[in-house]
Amino acid sequence: MQGKIENHSWNSEPEVGILIKSLIDVHSCKSVMEVGVFKGASYFSFASDKIGYIGIDIEDHREEIVKDKMEEMNHVFIKADSITQLKKFSLNSVYRRSFDLIFIDSVHEYDHCMAEFKECEKLISNGGLIVFHDSVLFAGVKKVIDYIKGFKHFDVLTLNTPDHEGRGGASGISIVRCNY
């Protein structure tokens, strides 16, 4: 199975998945949500039977190898509009403040990304992490990160990531720790 992964274009930096896996391990995350699964590159890097996982995407672009892995791990994929689904979760007391890590890699426009953040903020546990992909290269995501930096109960770290796709710059990743 690993050979199929190594030779596939996933449209995501491999370093992002490795970083998320490290964050999950270091922070002993038990519950993870991914908003914007696309083909599943990041998921495949951190998938483990030690975590509960929910992935949301408006389309099901996942490769069969990712679908098989999710099924094997009893992980959940929801084909839905992210904002609508996140609002459903935030209204359900079972999900409120129940995720240790949320990875946002969905629509990179400001209004959409901000709406996702506002809903995810209701779902993240105390001390939990919200990780944003493409927070350097995409102005909408960067603007959301700048907004978050204005609050004392958030710690924000932004890192550059390699430009594997020749897009003219590092896409970046921002890690937001929520201290409630």
Question: Your description of this structure?
Answer:
The structure is a single chain. The chain has 180 residues and is of the alpha/beta class. It has a single domain (2-178), classed as Rossmann fold. The chain contains seven helices and seven strands, in the order H-H-E-H-E-H-E-H-E-H-E-H-E-E. It has helices spanning 2-6, 14-26, 41-46, 64-72, 82-91, 110-123, 139-148, and strands spanning 31-35, 52-57, 76-79, 99-104, 124-133, 154-159, 173-178. A seven-stranded mixed sheet has the order 3-2-1-4-5-7-6, with helices on both faces. The termini are far apart.
How do the helices and strands line up, and which of them pair or pack?
Blueprint: H1 2-6, H2 14-26, E1 31-35, H3 41-46, E2 52-57, H4 64-72, E3 76-79, H5 82-91, E4 99-104, H6 110-123, E5 124-133, H7 139-148, E6 154-159, E7 173-178
Parallel strand pairs: 1-2, 1-4, 2-3, 4-5
Antiparallel strand pairs: 5-7, 6-7
Class computed from helices, strands and strand pairing? alpha/beta
CATH topology: the name is Rossmann fold
The strands making up the biggest β-sheet line up spatially as 3-2-1-4-5-7-6
Q: Unreliable segments (pLDDT under 50, ≥5 consecutive)?
A: 1-10
The best one-word shape is globular
Q: How can the largest sheet be summarized?
A: 7 strands, mixed
Summary keywords:
single chain; about 180 residues; alpha/beta; Rossmann fold; 7-stranded mixed sheet; 7 helices; 7 strands; disordered N terminus
